[in-house]
Amino acid sequence: MIRVLRAADRVATPWKNGGGITREVAIWPPDSKFLNFDWRISIAEVREPGPFSAFEGIDRTMAILRGRLELRLPDRVLTLDSASDPFAFAGDVPCEGIPLGGPVTDLNVMVRRGRAAAHVTQFQGVTEMVAESRTILVATACTTLRLGNEEHVLDVLDAALIADGHVSATGKGYVIAFS
After folding, report:
1. Distances (CA, A) of 81 to 42, 62, 86, 99, 171
2. In the 8-state DSSP scheme, what is residue 47?
3. Domain boundary at 112, 140, 157, which?
4. What is the pLDDT of residues 87-98, one digit of tens each?
5. Does the pLDDT of residue 77 top 80, yes or no?
6. Which one of 89, 112, 135 terminates a domain?
């Protein structure tokens, strides 16, 4: 079974520091709040330079969907863009983000350390995968998903929660598998 999560249905939440907005894609367990989730996926727009919020006990993976972002961590500085591999880091480590050349759209995957883990991979073209429960696919270009006789078309930034089964995806995006 595939459950489509449309980008148009997401509500924008402004950041406390005013530097951007976040739209939640999915959270587990369903209806959990920010303080008690096992995992959470969101898409954010970084508009202004500034520090990232600190998240005690949270591991993060970030992928840039549009734009370029300089990340400043205590031990290094790096620049990420849509060609970069997803970047994993501890959410409780101080981090500053600086958009380069305009706003940046990023995919954020957060897991509560010790309760969940996430594996984030980028795909392009035709991809075959065996999905386990709580696998999420986020499209960055128009993407078609097939699971048995079921077929869905995802628009840009739509997502799909995929139940167990062999899935074929044609398009471009990210697959997030939780354990």
Report:
1. 17, 10, 10, 10, 19
2. -
3. 112
4. 999 999 999 999
5. yes
6. 112
Cα–Cα dist 112/114, whole Å: 6
Query: And the tokens for 21?
Result: 């907005």
pLDDT in tens, 130-157: 877 678 889 998 899 898 888 999 999 9
**Tens digit of each residue's pLDDT (9 = 90 or more) over 50-69:** 998 889 999 999 999 999 99
Residue ranges making up the domain that contains 48: 10-112
| Contact present, 69 and 80 (Cβ < 8 Å) | yes
Contacts of 149 (CB under 8 A, 6+ apart): none
Length of the chain: 179
CA 159 to each of CA 57, 100, 171, 175: distance values in angstroms, whole numbers, following the listed order: 26, 27, 13, 10
